């Protein structure tokens, strides 16, 4: 009897576990949580995201604004008051925003200052979806709803019975204008706020069309109400219009914007909203999101895993944003942040290549190549109009971060088959960037004269983060060499950049098996602390940056002393305590704190330099350790919750790591066509490729216990390699993973199975 009961309970547990798995996703956008990562602050990032209500790669997004004007933390989950509903282009709180303005309903007293008009709200009365947002504003007794398009949106305000219903428009400071036209029921104007400096002739023009006549209309500037003028041009301009409403009355506002002109904003309004009502715009937005997110269909994961996956996919298809528009004749035009002119062609903004070259752009090249083709066209226009490629575009040139990783972004796209844009111009841009210091530290290569003459950027040349620069420049040179080969450039050119790609060796200290800054005289930087953040490295320490030889893991392994020594160093990342030296910064920066609290030793997944390191066991005959640690990172460091990331999400990069890892492979070395195999997360994933092919990745025995790869079959044939080929994946077909609770310590252990390295062709 006891045996029967035990057996029955076991069957029930198995059935319950199986029932908890999501068998099919038919409406992927409904699995997205736009609030994932929003429980963040300057001292600790759980994503540093905000609920971006918009369309994939849209020109702008909308977000409820809980922060004060100019605060990069514009929406924080722990906040309890909303100051407005802001049109935003913000890629991260550290970069802040540009061209923003906000709309806010108010009732009772006429209140327009940001603190006075703020209203309490609760997440219990908030609905956040990529294509729709609603919230109840308690102080105003007003419900606000938003449905976006790429360059426009519809608002729906449900008011109480009152003769004192108001809409406040705030065009923000640093130069703005608001014009109220009661006869046309419109508010128009512009914002010229740009957080990273100045841009020539920069304005974000907007027009807001209401469906109800105004009972009053006032302008305001700074903290002053202006009752006798409907046109305000000031440092900080705004407007307020009033209505009489009955209980439950809905007032709608149709909003569009343009970086080109107010006339173009009106064109965008008509083209994108036309005669559509709110529900139609909402339905169209949902359909667009499902079309984009539906390229990847997952089966056999837990509800939490499915929510995390699609929330990460939502983040991966936001940046960079389209900055181009369609003029009255339907021609593609854009405002140039480089010369202030309106020019033909595409333009994008809002991404930093230091973060996104690693996985975000390779993800686009595999799943959404057509949008990256547009982005490459935009890069060609960046170079034509500004003379350099941006490394951080927000938009234009931003003087932040290091590296010359536009080389990776350009090379990876072309090598993986993208065509139809001016690659010769982009290649010329790469050569210029590789051999010259730019107009600011973060454009071109800071320290280029040293790098090209002695092979590294020295620590005693007054150039910060010199070791990190050297390592990234060496990888970027390898990317240029690969692109040079593809373009059939002269052999001397190929040889030059191939030789430079070995410059990482200058910084490798064989006595400690770590990268170390070096002085101009050829001696290593001393004193040296491998746990010191910053100084010769960027937002990390030597334990993080030593692995930044993406293109030559075999060479790095040999330098460390071979397989055993290499694996021992990889293992040490996890077994070392999370100690740190913050003296370079003078305080504990948030990236340090995020590493410390994750309980993974020196592994700092919350920042980008080390994110590929988990896959490096594939090069050393112990791929099961990659499988173990990749699954650990997926399970422990990502949740579909407000504190769901383990550091900055960073424009899709940290999300793209999860997306690739859930597929079962990862692009350790963009610019090559190989993906290192890890461990798939779902029992099945289907990728619908743009060429019409379908890639089916199955692992039916996959579970929380069965995360080790026993064997792999590609289109039914045994696949003994630790890598997959991009061109092969683009042909579709099947990848079948046999999973086990025990590691297979035979598969993938021989050098013939290891991925590409420059030292082992």
TrEMBL record:
InterPro entries: 6-hairpin_glycosidase_sf, GH-type_carb-bd, GH92_a_mannosidase_put, GH92_N, Glyco_hydro_92, PNGase. Residues 1-19 form the signal peptide. Keywords: Calcium, Hydrolase, Signal. GO terms for molecular function: hydrolase activity. It comes from Flaviaesturariibacter amylovorans. This is GH92 family glycosyl hydrolase. Monomer. Its cofactor is Ca(2+). Residues 264-740 form the Glycosyl hydrolase family domain. Residues 31-258 form the Glycosyl hydrolase family 92 N-terminal domain. The keyword Oxidoreductase does not apply.
């Amino acid at each position: 009897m006891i045996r029967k009961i035990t057996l029955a309970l076991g069957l029930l547990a198995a059935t319950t576990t199986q029932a908890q798995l999501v068998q099919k996703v038919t409406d992927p956008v409904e699995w997205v949580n736009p609030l994932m990562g929003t429980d963040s602050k300057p001292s600790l990032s759980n994503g540093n995201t905000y609920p971006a209500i918009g369309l994939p790669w849209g020109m702008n997004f909308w977000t409820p604004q809980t922060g004060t004007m100019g605060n990069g933390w514009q929406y924080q989950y722990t906040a309890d008051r909303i100051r407005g509903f802001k049109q935003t282009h913000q890629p991260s709180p550290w970069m802040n925003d540009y061209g923003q303005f906000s709309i806010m309903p108010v009732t009772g007293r006429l209140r327009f200052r940001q603190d006075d008009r703020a209203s309490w709200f609760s997440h219990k009365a908030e609905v956040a979806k990529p294509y729709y947002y609603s919230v109840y504003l308690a102080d105003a007794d007003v419900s606000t709803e938003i449905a976006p398009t790429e360059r426009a949106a519809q608002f729906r305000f449900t008011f109480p019975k009152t003769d004192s219903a108001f809409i406040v428009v705030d065009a923000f400071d640093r130069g703005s204008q608001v014009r109220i036209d009661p006869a046309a029921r419109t508010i128009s104007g512009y914002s010229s706020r740009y957080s990273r400096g100045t841009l020539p002739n920069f304005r974000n023009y907007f027009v807001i069309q209401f469906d109800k006549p105004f009972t009053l209309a006032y302008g305001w500037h700074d903290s002053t109400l202006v009752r006798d003028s409907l046109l305000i041009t000031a440092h900080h301009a705004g407007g307020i219009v009033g209505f009489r409403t009955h209980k439950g009355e809905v007032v709608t506002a149709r909003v569009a914007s343009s970086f080109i002109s107010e006339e173009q904003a009106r064109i965008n309004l008509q083209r994108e909203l036309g005669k559509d009502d709110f529900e139609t715009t909402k339905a169209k937005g949902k359909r667009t999101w499902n079309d984009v997110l539906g390229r990847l269909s997952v089966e056999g994961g837990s509800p939490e895993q499915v929510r995390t996956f699609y929330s990460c996919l939502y983040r991966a298809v936001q940046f960079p944003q389209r900055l181009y528009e369609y003029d009255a004749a339907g021609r593609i035009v854009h405002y140039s942040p480089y010369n202030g002119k309106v020019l033909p062609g595409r333009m994008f903004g809002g991404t930093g290549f230091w973060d996104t070259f690693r996985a975000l752009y390779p993800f686009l090249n595999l799943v959404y190549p057509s949008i990256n083709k547009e982005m490459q066209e935009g890069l060609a226009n960046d170079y034509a109009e500004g003379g350099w490629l941006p490394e951080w575009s927000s938009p234009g040139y931003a003087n932040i971060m290091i590296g010359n990783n536009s080389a990776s972004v350009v090379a990876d796209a072309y090598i993986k088959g993208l065509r139809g844009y001016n690659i010769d111009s982009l290649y010329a841009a790469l050569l210029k960037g590789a051999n010259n210091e730019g107009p600011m530290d973060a454009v071109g290569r800071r320290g280029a004269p040293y790098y090209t003459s002695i092979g590294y950027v020295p620590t005693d040349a007054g150039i910060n983060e010199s070791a990190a620069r050297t390592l990234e420049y060496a990888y970027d040179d390898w990317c240029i060499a690969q692109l040079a080969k593809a373009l059939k450039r002269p052999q001397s050119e190929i040889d030059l950049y191939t030789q430079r790609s070995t410059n990482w060796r200058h910084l490798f200290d064989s006595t400690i098996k770590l990268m170390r800054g070096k002085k101009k005289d050829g001696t290593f930087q001393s004193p040296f602390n491998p746990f010191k953040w910053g100084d010769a490295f960027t937002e990390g320490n030597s334990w993080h940056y030593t692995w930044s030889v993406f293109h030559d893991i075999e060479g790095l392994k040999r330098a460390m002393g071979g397989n055993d020594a290499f694996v021992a160093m990889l293992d040490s990342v996890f077994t070392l305590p999370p100690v740190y030296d913050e003296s370079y910064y003078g305080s504990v920066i948030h990236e340090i704190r995020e590493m410390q609290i994750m309980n993974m030793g020196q592994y700092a997944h919350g920042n980008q330099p080390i994110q590929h390191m988990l896959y490096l066991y594939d090069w050393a005959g112990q791929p099961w350790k990659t499988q173990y640690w990749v699954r650990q990172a997926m399970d422990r460091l990502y949740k579909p919750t407000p504190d769901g990331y383990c550091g900055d999400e960073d424009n899709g990069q940290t999300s793209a790591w999860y997306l690739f890892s859930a597929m079962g492979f990862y692009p350790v070395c963009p610019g090559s066509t190989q993906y290192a195999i890890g461990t798939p997360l779902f029992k099945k994933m289907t990728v619908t490729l743009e060429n019409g092919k379908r890639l089916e990745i199955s692992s039916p025995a996959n579970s929380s216990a069965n995360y080790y790869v026993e064997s792999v079959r590609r289109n039914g044939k045994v696949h003994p390699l630790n890598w997959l080929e991009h061109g092969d994946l683009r042909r579709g077909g099947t990848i079948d993973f046999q999973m086990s609770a025990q590691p297979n310590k035979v598969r993938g252990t021989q050098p013939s199975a290891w991925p590409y390295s420059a030292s082992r062709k």
